[in-house]
Amino acid sequence: MDKIYIDKLSKWHNKLDIINSLIIDWNISVEFIYKSEFQNTKDLRDFVEIICWLLKFPDNTISRVVLIADELNNNAIEYWSDKSWFNFLRIISKFEDWILNFNLEVEDNWNWRAPKKALDMETMRAHKLKLWYFNHDSIRWRWLFLIIVKLVDRLYFKNSKLWGLIVWVKMKI
Q1: Element (H or E) spanning 147, and its range?
Q2: With contact defined as beta carbons under 8 Å apart, do 30 and 1 qualify?
Q3: Which of 122, 128, 127, 123 is nearest to 154 (CA)?
Q4: Domain span including residue 19
Q5: Structural domains of the chain, count
Q6: CATH no. for residue 140?
Q7: What is the pLDDT along the chain (173 residues), one digit of tens a residue?
Q8: N or C: which terminus of the chain carries fewer CB neighbours within 10 A?
């Protein structure tokens, strides 16, 4: 897996050239490592958009994937990460049998004040889906599960080796 350290990039780096060198036959496996600070989210959105563009996603799919990545990164930074540590955004796409399997994974670094484990998130998701939440269509009240349920093929939570939480989504394009 290729690694890109967001904090080591200067504003002069060409993001398109960086990503273009990593995509081989519609396949990419890249990990973005970034300090848990909101100032890094613009670069992450740009990289996700470039990857989707180079993989020739339809425009509406690109905007959805960027939205999902942004929501996952913002949640990790705001709620589940210590600001002095790093988070990870991983993108893996693999072209098989004329289908592009696109996986996006965000790993937070564990906030000791309010840790959530995979089981906690699965329980919360089941509770929200069991109640009224699945049919909630408010534009102003976006939330992780609503976005994910409506836009991806699969959502998965797992505990990281470093005590954090990994949120993983899969889409077939």
Answers
A1: helix 144-151
A2: yes
A3: 122
A4: 2-172
A5: 1
A6: 3.30.565.10
A7: 999 999 878 777 889 999 988 988 889 999 999 999 898 999 999 999 999 999 999 999 999 999 999 988 988 888 777 787 899 999 999 988 889 999 999 998 876 666 778 888 888 777 776 766 555 555 544 566 666 777 888 888 898 887 788 888 999 98
A8: N
